[in-house]
Batch of 3 targets.
Target 1
Amino acid sequence: MHPKVVFIRRILRDRGISYSRLSEMTEIDESKLKRVLSGRQPMTLEMCDNLAVALSLNEVDSCGLGNSASEFLLLWEQLEPELKSSILSLVRAVAKVKS
């Protein structure tokens, strides 16, 4: 499941927001929200923006930078190997530039 979907599901759980309520907040069909947030349908950029506005998420929030280490590890475990490799290459490149 995409990390953004995992993050949004966690926000909904933490805030006690139902799919029904989220549908009202975003004017997105509840059945579509359920498909997207269960990973059965991809989330569009427009939907992602609508959710961020409805949930009052800023760019830092939506990147998940406030997550605990265990949440980062959970998200990391869900990434495809190619994406993990790309991220690690980027981190190494940034570390070289800083040193």
Target 2
Amino acid sequence: MVIRKFHEMGVRSEHAYMAAFASIGLSIASWAGSLKLEPGTGLARADRWGIFVGQWAPTFFGLGLALSHYEQHDGTLVVDTREVRREAA
């Protein structure tokens, strides 16, 4: 199974979530960068760059969810709800 292999390699759900949020930021940066660095190509090319990179985020979020589900069943989930409740009290 792919998710198990990722987990064995040390990839955790938090890593996938961080990659998803980073890809959102990178999408905005690539769109803005394309507008500034390639002024003659127009808005359409910048939009294509932004959309291309922006499509990575749902994949990373899905991977994060799958890893989180695996971690819950594997018993290696980093944050336990009991720990959160103790810290809040």
Target 3
Amino acid sequence: MKPFFLFYYLLSVMLFIIALPLLILLSFKKKYKESIPARFFLFKNPPFCSTNAIWFHVCSLGEARALKPLLELLENKKILVTTITQTGHNEAKKYNAEVRYLPYEMYLPFWVKPQKKLIVLEAEFWYLLFSIARSRGAEVILLNARISDKSVKKYMKFAWFYKKLLENVDMVYAQSESDKNRFLALGAKHIEVIGNIKLAGEIKKTKEYEKPDAEVIVAGSTHPGEEQSILEAFFAYEKNKEAKLIIVPRHPERFAEVYALIKRYGRQNNATVSRFSEGKSFAADLILVDMMGELNNIYAIGDIAILGGAFKNDVGGHNPLEPAYFGCKIITGKHFFHQKELFKYVHHVQYVEPDEIADALEMTKELPPSMVEEQINLEPVVQKILKNKRSW
């Protein structure tokens, strides 16, 4: 056992002991009630039954969804998927695959079985995961790999660590030339730019709703603080009496909190309010969509999309391809660093500060709908992954 591996492992055990009281406390919260017991206590989270399979690791909902076109091209292969978040786990369970939560690193020496490939999406960099999977025969591949503008300085400060981590990576398929150069600076050896695989994802609605006889503004994937800015902008918007605002929070545990906020603004402005789950109606002026899996169905009847996750610098934005696909005029914030590559392909987007949303709404009358310019063919990517050979 290498000295650094042993040091890192002991550090992970020590951090677990320090964090134990907080982990127990968080495990009672709805957002973490499955993921924390599974990841940190292995509750209902045994090792995979299969060996010698293709193992994908993703973090959350967006990455789990991005797997769909890949897995369709690998339909005859034995597939395993690990996730970090509960929403990602629920999405991964829709596939014909064995699905687990990725355990905390100190468990991995006892949990990981030999597999053909470990394919890790985006920025999920785990030293013990890469080291152990590779030592047990897996080829380790980073797919859709990225290092955001916001994160690059942090990575470079710990370049010595990432060099050790990337020694266990056989191939990096990067989103852009910028990402490639950043991985090179961190010591990665085999890198190819393939673009963002989310461009290959099928975007569709699952239900057909009749569009209200009004302008429909959809606030999609919103986060704390964003709903208030959007509500204030809506009531400052000249056409608000002829429009409806539909708010779709990113996280379901916030539905009650956001509904209380919507009701307060409704009372202050003599606007009607409803929860979508209670009647599946768009009759009210302000509507909270408090159901999962409805966002594309709502974008399909939308005129304007205010895309959340980018009005503060703590999230990094959300996928703009979905509202663009349905022809919405997109308004979003300026902090979209995790989605920078996708926004390159979407045209006619307004990037604004929270206090500029009302002006952006006025501007939409002069702008065409947003549109996506480019696609990606995943078949060559899949063939490269399947044929990739270790180089040591």
